[in-house]
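Record type: monomer structure entry
Structure origin: computed from sequence
Chain ID: A
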Amino acid sequence: MDNHTYDIVIIGGGATGLGSAVDAASRGYKTLLVEQADFGKGTSSRSTKLVHGGVRYLAQGNIKLVREALAERGRLLKNAPLMTSTQPFVVPVFSLWEKFYYSAGLMLYDVLSGKLSLGKTRLLSRKKTLELLPNINPKKVAGGILYYDGQFNDAELCIELAHTAERYGATVLNYTKAVGFIKEKDIIVGVELEDTLGAAMSAGGGEVAAGGDGINGASHVAEPTRQKVSCKCVINATGVFTDSVLQMDDPHADTLVYPSQGIHLVVSPKFFRGINAMMIPKTDDGRVLFAVPWQGKVVVGTTDSHVDHIDLEPLPLAEEIHFVLEHFNRYTNAAITKEDVLSVFVGLRPLVRSANSGSNISSLLSRDHTLVVSPSRLVTITGGKWTTYRKMAEDAVNNAFFVAKLDHTSTKDSGSAKAGATSAATSGAKKCITKDLPIGDLGAARELAAQLTLDEPMLGNYLDHEFAAFHHITYAIRVVDVVVAARISYVRTVEDFLARRSRLLFLDARAAIKLAPSVATILQKELNWSNEEREAQLQSFIQLAQQYIIH
């Protein structure tokens, strides 16, 4: 246990947790992050794929939240240019009053972004609106407003944040669950961890297992193992699972999170042509409707339904599917049915309960983030959204080093930062530097892919029919992509690759099922699976993928 002592242990490998790991490690703190499943498995891979300030929050009068989110939007597009882009949006309007009202709001949105504006908001004639949204239902359209927001690949950004945290010396472990706290005088001084995949956690993707402090140094284990690590502070960044960690610390802790479910349907671009996204800011029941081009498909959503059950794989409700289909068909000239949906994915938002309002309406609950410090010095950060993950991480780490008095007690050897980290990590500096910190592996994946592409004997291990299976599918996934993902991008399961390293499960669930056997065969060789493990992995993925198909 003495060999595994950290300044900060972070529980949760989604946007906020990984952002906190980057922040803490880049300040020079010895950092461990653990995630019970795969990085981004939960809410963080199930967003609307937008980096945005929150146009709808303007209507609520939350100028502070919008201004902060727009600033973070600009920083994220600057710091992660390979994973983000600018997305033009058109808001169709159906009366002169709507044109005035929404244009005023969107122009304010543009003004609030200041120097980080992505493009000038402008009014559109009816003719121009129909030109930019060729599939919109022309009935009653009076014009539109063009504005700009950001777009990104959420799961990819999670992985690149993990790479960045490691670059600054952090240890990041997926499939590692915090199962208990170790306390002295009611203060948390350690965490008990459990390997949730058994042998798979120690096999393959060796950068994680071998990196940091070698917590998982064993080559293979037959059963899930437990181990303990010491720490000076713990950050709870587990999103919708926040309350379970709070109650692991204190069984009588109050409930903090009010989960809200949002679904997205993915359809062919033939139903919504062009490069422009559409936003309907207020449907007849007050919800927002998006139709956003993304990775060659169109993402349509989203809903806002309170749910009582929290699960890593939430299921869409029948009424949610009906709502999205009915409203998309109403506002466009499409007539899509359930059979036209290529994939449906569901995410849970960790909305924060208001102690004063007593409201049970999720759309009225705060989208801002909340930070709580428990008597045990557990720092909990929850709420918020992807766009503001960096600011949430900064606030969490600021509180962590305050409650744990880390300023002058960092256990990190100043010479232990990995190659490639800037002087901020090696000098022991404690000031947050993430506002301008580049995100990513700085080309390591591309370099390895180039090496493997040229190394025919290595790829020659894979059978011809496996290449054929990849290249006859219309998705640009190569064998080398699977190999690279297994070796340096933390892949442990077939699902990891098909859901989050590629996004095929989210784009076309049936195509993902077709490719799954080839992916399983390649991962079997890369991760040293037995035939039984390969078959179990394959069947597990197929069963999961069926949930992404509307039956």
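Annotation 1: The domain at 5-43+156-256+365-436 is CATH 3.50.50.60 (FAD/NAD(P)-binding domain).
Annotation 2: The longest strand covers residues 226-236.
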